[in-house]
Amino acid sequence: MPVNAPIQPEYRGYTVWDSPTRWFHWINALAVLGLLVTGLVILTAGQLGLSSEGKITLKETHALFGYVLALNLLWRFIWAFFGNRYARWKAILPGGRGYGAALRAYAASFLTGEPEQYVGHNPLARIGVTMLLFLLLVQTVTGLVLAGADLYWPPFGGLVADWVAAPGVDPGTLVPGTKDLIDVTAYQAMRDLRGPIVETHEIVFYLIAVGVALHLIAVVVTEIHEGGSIVSAMFTGRKILTKKPPDEV
Questions:
Q1: I need a labelling partner for 111 at 20 to 30 A (CA). Which of 7, 27, 151, 156 fits?
Q2: What residues contact 115, with CB distance under 8 A and at least 6 apart?
Q3: How far is CA 77 from CA 23, 229, 233, in A?
Q4: Where is each Cytochrome b561 bacterial/Ni-hydrogenase domain found (predicted)?
Q5: Lowest mean pLDDT among 7-16, 139-148, 240-249
């Protein structure tokens, strides 16, 4: 070999994302996409000229995507106690012993153009993932409340129906959009309580949209500068690295 020949990187494969984690990721991506699209149409329903019936149908579709998100998120939170090393809370949440030093080391290596390669989430990514999970949790909780307030759907729809039904009316007969079977005073009180929840839901909607965009940018930037087949790993469960990862088992 010539003396000045460049040193070829040594590629090594690592098992990282187990199948439940990969399924969560892609189901979550589809659910969030569906929620963002239907949510945007709901927010612009007035400009689009949607009828009351059309808006209710749209809200029902939006809520169905929300149920998928809620069940998927619940599953991920449970799996974070039982999954492999890289799927657990310790590898997701920022903090813990040595985290500060690891974050500084990763940031310094990234600025040099030779970033450290991690099997799981790098220290900076753990902050982003945690923020996204928190926003999705807030959106899920507020969304479930609104599904009850607007559609009388579970888990809170029964309570709302009992609250707003007019005297002598079976709460189970209430359907979205009907006003002749409700107690006007109780319904207005419910709407007043609903107001701040709607505002929170809308604000978090935009924050999630920004978070998704930043997540995609971060994946592309990390893939280019760090390597490690980040995108393909979410399909195959394996990363191909050229450096010894700090979080190697």
A1: 7
A2: 106, 109, 122, 222, 225, 226
A3: 14, 25, 21
A4: 16-237
A5: 7-16
* DSSP for residue 229: -
Compute the radius of gyration of the chain from its Cα atoms: 23
- pLDDT of residue 158 exceeding 90: yes
Name which of 118, 121, 116 is nearest 89 in CA terms: 121
Number of other CB atoms surrounding residue 173 within 10 Å: 10
Name all domains of the chain by residue range, CATH numbers in brackets. Answer: 16-241 (1.20.950.20)
| Two structure tokens written together for 215 | 């997540």
Buried-state track 36-46, b at ≥16 Cβ within 10 A, e below 16: bebbebbeebe
* Angle value at C-alpha 53, between 48 and 54, nearest 5 degrees: 35
pLDDT surpasses 70 at 9: no
